[in-house]
Amino acid sequence: MYSQNVRSNIIILRAVTRVSQGSRVEKLNKVYKTNIVKSVSQKCQLQHKMKLEVMFCKKGALKYISHLDIVRLFQRTIRRAGLPVTLSQGFTPHYKIGFSNALKLGVESEGERAVFTIDNWMDPEVFKNRMNEKLPEGIKVLECKKRF
Asked: What is residue 21's predicted lDDT score, i.e. its pLDDT?
């Protein structure tokens, strides 16, 4: 049903999910004569992602800013605040941010939503404060909470 390479990769991945101690990693590397198990297990241990759901408002002169400009504004804010937002894997990495539906141009809002994927654990209040320090007048993060 599966080729030999696919079967061996499935066995290695099953073994990696059970690996928790370094000595077991070394045993598996000897059995499979490879360092794949060690590198895959290290990557699995490093990937601790957290999602934060942010509610923000858009008022005043910034109600004339388009949705695409809001996305760029948040990307600049993340960069300036030095927040550990996850980057996509690929040739041109982008921040992993998800926004709710776009509003019409010229409409103020009190409850826009965005979801940020963070590399490490971060207190939602710290995230909110650091964002508000760097956002321009007219946009403010009202609420920030963990999303599961």
From this structure: 44
Q: How far apart are CA 33 and CA 31, in angstroms?
A: 6
HEC string of 41-83 equals: HHHHHHCCCEEEEEEEEECHHHHHCCHHHHHHHHHHHHHHHCC
Tally of residues, the chain: 148
Rounded Cα distance, 78 and 118, in Å: 11
Q: Is the pLDDT of residue 128 over 70?
A: yes
H/E element, 102: none
User: Dihedral of the CA atoms 19, 21, 26, 29 (nearest 10)?
Assistant: 10
pLDDT digits (tens, 9 = 90+) for 10-67: 455 454 444 444 455 555 556 555 555 445 545 544 557 899 999 999 999 999 999 9
Query: Rg of the Cα trace of the chain?
Result: 21
Alpha helices in the chain (DSSP H): 4-18, 22-32, 36-46, 67-81, 124-134
| Domains of the chain, first to last | 4-46 (no CATH), 50-147 (3.30.70.580)
